[in-house]
Predict the 3D structure of the following.
Amino acid sequence: MLKPIAVLLVCQLLGETAARGLALPVPGPVIGLLLLFAMLLARDRLIARSGARIALPALDAAPAAPLGRAADALLGVLGLLFVPAGVGVVDHLGLFAAHGIGLAAVLVLSMLATLLATVFVFLAVARLLGPKGDEA
C-alpha cells in the first residue's frame, strides 16, 4: 500500500511544484490529478504496444489493484477533510453574521452562473455532434 500512496503523493507534489513554480492559476492537486491521469493513459498505451509484457502494478487503478485500493481508502475518509473547513466556519461566525447577505448572494449567483455555463456548453456540444442521419 506504500507504493500507490507514494504515487499519489508524488503526483500531487509535482502538481504543486508546477502550479507554484509556473505561477499557474490552477490548484496544484488538480495538476497532479491530470498528471496521474496522463500516467495511467501512458501506462495503458505502453501495455497495449508491448502486448501486456510490462506490468506496472503501482499504476494499476482497477478497484482490486493497489492504486485503486489506496484511492478507495482515501475516498473512505474524505469526510474528515471537511472538518477543518467546518471549524473555520464556526471560528469566523462573526464574519458570516456581518456579511451573510453578501455571501449568500455570491453563492446563489455563482451557482446560477455555473448552471448556465453548463447548459450552454451542453447545447454547443449537442449542436457540434448533431443528430446523425439514422438517429433523426
